[in-house]
Amino acid sequence: MDCRTALEILEVVRPDTGDLDDPELAEAAAHIESHAECKSEFLRRQQLDREIGSAMRDIPVPHDLETRLLADLAERSETADVAETVAAPTAKPKAALQRRSWMSLVVGTAASLAIGVIGWQLLSGSSTHVDAVQVATSITGRDPNFDGLTEYGGDDSELPADWESLPKGLAIDGPKSYAYQQADGAKLAIAMYQFRFTHRRTPVTGYLLVLPVDSVNPPPTNTALPAGAGSGITSVSWTDGDFVYVCVIPKRGGHFRRLGRLLDRGMT
Amino acid sequence: MADGSAASLLAQLVQQHYAALYRYAFRLSGKSADAEDLVQQSFLTAHQKIDQLRDPQNGKAWLFTITRNAYLKSLRGNTGTKLLSLEHAPEPGEECPQDIRLDNEQLQSILNELEEEFRTPLILFYFEQFSYKEIAEQMDVPIGTVMSRLARGKTHLRQKLASFQPAGSQQT
Fold it and tell me: For a tag site, which of A160, A213, B79, B159 has the least CB within 10 Å?
């Protein structure tokens, strides 16, 4: 190992820590011990790192920031409590904020499908509310010709946070404007993303649609792409804050678990 | 997670990490107002996604990841500033300049001109909050990539800091 390589490897050593004891750095550490000039350069860099680190961390924090953040969170919790109380007489029990098991996903998805179909029938003719399952069904098994769609110009196109992290292996394009035909024939522009990943060396293409929560009836009770989403499912929908997301993988339904793992990797 | 315990955990996360998150957000964005917005947005996301925090011991790394994602999101559509990539910069290896006088504004301006993929490892390294392995996990890149970006970033930082010094004030 030459001096340049050893010094480059040792750039990751934080001053005054045990980093230098890392076995992966042992060869470089041994090298500088055997070269006085190299060690001297390493020590100079460590000293400069101390000074840069001190300056880097020297940022005054607004004195009331903690108070404001705590107040903001308290307010949001109270708002959620009030909303739940008001909705209590007719609403289903709100799903706990936790990932569902595979079995509960299957049951939940089946229930959503049933509720969706009934809900759509009851709402037939309404031009202001759409059903997530119907939106998914309008895509499943069809080619939406994503490349041919126009760019989506609306504001309602926010990706979920775990998609925003763009996990390695997941490519996302969009949003584009997907023209969803409602029951009364009117067309509704929905923000649509196309995503791509590979599963067992097979390229998989899917679509994520973003709808304002107040335009969907009923909004899905899932709060995240369920961890156990598995075989036989071609679409999953969930609610996240102000948005309902409809995730569709046309034709092949067995790839959701792989997608969930990619998203997990991006969030943790 | 029960609502009460989630609220309690969130309050704990705020109290323990808000200052570090603010400093991180400040170094990422370069502006106090943007840093406050990013921290607020981060805790809002944490509030919505608290079920995804499987181990509260990982709360700090989880929040830092959320903050970085919020920052990356804020960059979307911002094509006005040409940032510096060090991907093809000369190999690190020059001698370390001495007697550098550090100026906080100069330090920030150097960070601001770097592409995020080089800026973030530098900030996280100098914050001394995370090991390079943890930085790799947060950025979802291999450890070797972090090490390489860190080495290039540090070399660039030293060169730029040296260039800011008045003539004759440094030895090499």
Answer: B79
